[in-house]
Specification:
The chain is of the alpha+beta class and about 675 residues long. The protein has 23 helices and 25 strands. It has a seven-stranded mixed β-sheet with strand order 13-21-20-19-16-14-15, with helices on both faces. Strands 8, 11, 12 and 23 form a four-stranded mixed β-sheet that branches. It has a three-stranded antiparallel β-sheet with strand order 1-2-3. Helix 11 (about 305-310) runs antiparallel to helix 20 (about 530-545). The protein starts with 8 loop residues before the first strand and ends in an 11-residue tail after the last helix.
Length: about 675
């Protein structure tokens, strides 16, 4: 597991009287050329987090601590200490908290200085409240013009035309290459030394269309994906530069500048975002808008989680080398499951070593032949794979359409199974808390209401919502006000908000005991690494405030503010923005396939690491860029990113909300 680098330290705010006295003593000692010993009192009961010298305020507690903050003062910091992990080096801010380190006073911060979004606070809160009332509580009417943009006719027409041209030209080039016996993709067994490449004896391993799509479409733009990084995936990230010698058929890491001509090396070295890591490998320093780092544990890992994670290595190995049913269970596995169950409001929980496999192996253990799965049409592919593997019948309902869900349930109960008309063994409805490609919240209140009325079980995937939504980070249930006991199976992952890996299932003790025996992730897969277990435990303690600080609450508040501000500004640009306020996922529509790679490359040139998505991950018309916002971002980071995104939006003409013809 890659350990995260970060810089952040906790300091209690001292009283003003004590600080004045200390300051007088400090000035006297300074004249004498001596240092003084002092202690720090904590009269406000609040903490400040400083990372790189900047302070993030907990906006929800601002009114309660305003009087306290007016009578307190900040502490100067010493930025001389360095922390190095792996190949990435970060500067750690050390705060004078010991008795032997002097303190000096700075001017108390005003409310506007403490709240980075003070100038837009009212608007952000109004937009968030309206979205929550519409999509979570259904107490206000939805503005269709603001939330549901149709695909512009011109964009749809040019998208279909682009794919038609790409496929036609690809077939022509394949035909010419086969006719002439020459081409980049002509494979001969005598050249490769692989007998299977002799198609006179072996059938092609891959289907023709799959090969055509890879060769003639994907390879043209594959530089937009699979970018290797050489740092922690925090708010800033170092991306290893890659080059291609064969027209993007293959990509290779550039390495050092010695691999280039002197002229090209000079161009790289003078670049605005040029950086090097260990071994003088060339990287590009980018603002990270692509990684799942919702609560920013990648940025302050040294402060929040390092001690516990490194301590776990003193008594436990990196890998247990066995499945949970054999010799793969340690005390940390029990601790993870206990804290997850408590956080989710369920009786018990089971942790597994891979988020994708959590769905792919749990659903077949719960459902089988004679059962019915009703799945939202936009559910993640891990749910799709798990449902197909189970052998159950599958029905899909339109995204977040509870009326359609009710129709399917009525029909399933009345008609029963096909041919035999026997009743279904059990019916399970599967939904997600936040849909990862849309950034939309699940209509959980209405779905729970319908399922309870018709006696259907509910399986909730909270991979992107747990830790990231709700006042205390407890996910979509807390956000929508649904009782955890109304959801039968709760699934989540540790990769998005907790800085770890793997996933969990939380439910009743009977269900969890059944899954421990029947779920392949528990019976056959290697158990979750103890190091990762400790990372998850440490992050949960921060979020729940069990570490004795309010860092977790500040992280949740910062994520919400950053996400809402970023979404608001994207909408102001006239982009087609999907999703709801309070969601950390902000997708914007690109539509045309040529704009997928163009958007990624133009952002990359401007020092932005972004994620672009196209067919087959999305429908053919619905190509998009997806921004993942983090609590580790500052407003300055987001303003810089938005300025550059606006430049790219003008260049690629994607302001479809303002001009539906050309964008």
């Amino acid at each position: 597991m890659p350990f995260f680098n970060g810089a952040s330290t906790i300091v209690d705010e001292p009283s003003m009287d004590k600080l004045k006295a200390d300051n007088d003593l400090a000035n006297m000692n300074k004249k004498k050329g001596t240092s003084m010993d002092s202690d720090m009192d904590n009269t406000c009961g609040s903490t400040a987090i400083l990372s790189g010298g900047s302070t993030e305020a907990d906006h929800e507690n601002l009114s309660q601590t305003e009087e306290c903050s007016e009578t307190s003062s900040d502490v100067d910091v010493d930025e001389s200490s360095q922390t190095e992990t792996g190949s990435a080096t970060s500067t750690t801010t050390t705060i004078a908290v010991s008795a032997s380190v002097p303190k000096t006073l700075t001017k108390p911060k005003s409310k506007a200085e403490s709240d980075p979004y003070a100038d837009v606070r009212d608007r952000i809160e109004a937009l968030s409240l309206h979205s929550r009332m519409v999509h979570a509580h259904h107490t206000q009417e939805e503005d269709n013009n603001a939330t549901h943009q149709s695909v512009p006719f011109f964009a749809a027409w040019t998208t279909y035309l682009s794919y038609a041209i790409l496929i036609f030209v690809g077939h022509v080039r394949d035909f010419c290459a086969k006719l002439c016996g020459q081409g980049r993709y002509i494979v001969r067994s005598e050249d490769t030394g692989c007998p299977a490449d002799d198609f006179t004896k072996y059938a092609p391993l891959l289907k023709s269309f799959e090969v055509l799509f890879t060769r003639r479409i994907y390879h043209r733009i594959q530089d937009a994906w699979n970018r290797p990084i050489s740092s922690n995936p925090g708010a800033k990230v170092n991306i290893l530069e890659r080059i291609s010698q064969d027209g993007n058929k293959t990509m290779e890491v550039l390495g050092t500048l010695d691999a280039l001509s002197q002229e090209d090396a000079n161009i790289y070295a003078k670049g605005e975002y040029f950086a090097t890591v260990s071994g003088d490998r060339v990287t590009r320093r980018c603002l990270n808008l692509a990684s799942y780092n919702y609560l920013g544990f990648a940025d302050d890992w040294n402060v929040t989680c390092r001690e516990g994670v490194m301590g776990s290595l003193q008594s436990l190995p990196v890998s247990m080398g066995s499945s949970r049913m054999e010799c793969g269970t340690s005390k940390l596995h029990h601790d993870v499951e206990e804290i997850v169950a408590k956080f989710c409001g369920q009786d018990d929980a089971m942790a597994v070593n891979m988020g994708f496999n959590t769905n792919a192996t749990t659903i077949p253990a719960l459902m089988g032949r004679g059962d019915l799965i009703i799945s939202d049409e936009l559910n993640h592919t891990s749910i799709v794979n798990g449902a197909r593997t189970s052998g159950s019948a599958i029905r899909c309902f339109r995204h977040n359409d509870t009326n359609h869900l009710e129709e399917i349930l009525k029909e399933a109960i009345v008609l029963g199974q096909p041919r035999t008309r026997r009743p279904w063994g059990k019916i399970m409805v599967i939904v997600e808390g936040i849909y990862s490609m849309e950034g939309e919240f699940c209509d959980l209140r209405n779905i729970v209401k319908v399922c309870k009325e018709y006696g259907a079980y509910i399986y909730l995937d909270e991979a992107h919502s747990i830790g990231a939504t709700g006042p205390s980070g407890k996910g979509i249930l807390e956000y929508t006000g649904v009782d955890p006991k109304d959801v039968d199976i709760m699934m989540g992952t540790f990769t998005k908000s907790f800085g770890g890996m793997g996933g969990y299932i939380a439910s009743s003790k009977d269900v969890i005991n059944h899954l421990r025996r029947k779920c392949a992730a528990s019976s056959y897969h290697n158990s979750l690494s103890p190091v990762v277990c400790q990372q998850v435990i440490s992050s949960f303690k921060v979020i729940m405030g069990l570490d004795g600080t309010n860092i977790g609450k500040q992280k949740i508040t910062a994520l919400r503010d950053n996400s809402n501000y970023f979404r608001m500004r994207l909408c102001d640009m006239g982009l087609h923005v999907l999703g709801h306020y309070d969601s950390p996922i902000c997708p914007i529509m690109l539509y045309n396939p040529a704009k997928i790679s163009a958007f990624s490359r133009e952002c990359y040139k401007r020092g932005l690491a972004v994620c672009v998505v196209g067919f087959p991950a999305t429908p053919i018309l619905m190509s998009r860029a997806r921004f993942c916002i983090s609590a580790g971002h500052t407003r300055e980071d987001l303003d810089v990113a938005l300025e550059k995104i606006e430049e790219v939006a003008d260049l690629l003409m994607i302001r479809y909300a303002k001009n539906t013809f050309f964008g």
